[in-house]
């Protein structure tokens, strides 16, 4: 989705984890991008130091939504939040949106396979299409595509990298902390 239209507001900030880019349509989050280039957090808790550095030119509705989103992300990344309560708006195909919405059904601290997700959305043979939809997830973390793993339990296919997937699953207690060393 192209978010360059004037109805969207883009907000960026950097923290110990890397560069974060948020796109809002009024108070609704539409996209969350993360770039870890040149960022090496020393511990999972490093994101606790993220600060919502809001530009004063932002419309107040966007500023409030941005602050709320950053606060909830920080709480999640230090293990103090299990679910997000952030208004969002999804742009994608009907199938993609169905897949993305199904991710909310995977409980914190649990994982499902691509096949499980395919069955959840009523398309049991669409395992590859599930992978494609997950890769296009516009708001990772919020819609937890990191909870989807290979059917043998292996960590595969995460657009933000397997290191990040592993960190998120450790935060949630879905995999042991020793796996961070792999």
Task: Provide a quick synopsis of the model.
By secondary structure, the chain is α+β, with helices and mostly antiparallel strands.
Question: What this model shows, in words?
Answer:
- This protein is α+β, with helices and mostly antiparallel strands and 182 residues long.
- Helix content is 30%, strand content 15%.
- The protein has 5 helices and 5 strands.
- The strands form 2 sheets. A 3-stranded antiparallel beta sheet has the order 1-2-3. Strands 4-5 form a two-stranded parallel ribbon.
- β2 (18-25) and β3 (28-35) form a beta hairpin.
- The longest helix is centred in the middle third of the chain and has 18 residues, at 60-77.
- The protein is globular and about 50 Å long.
- The N and C termini lie far apart (34 Å).
- Residues 41-48 have low confidence and may be disordered.
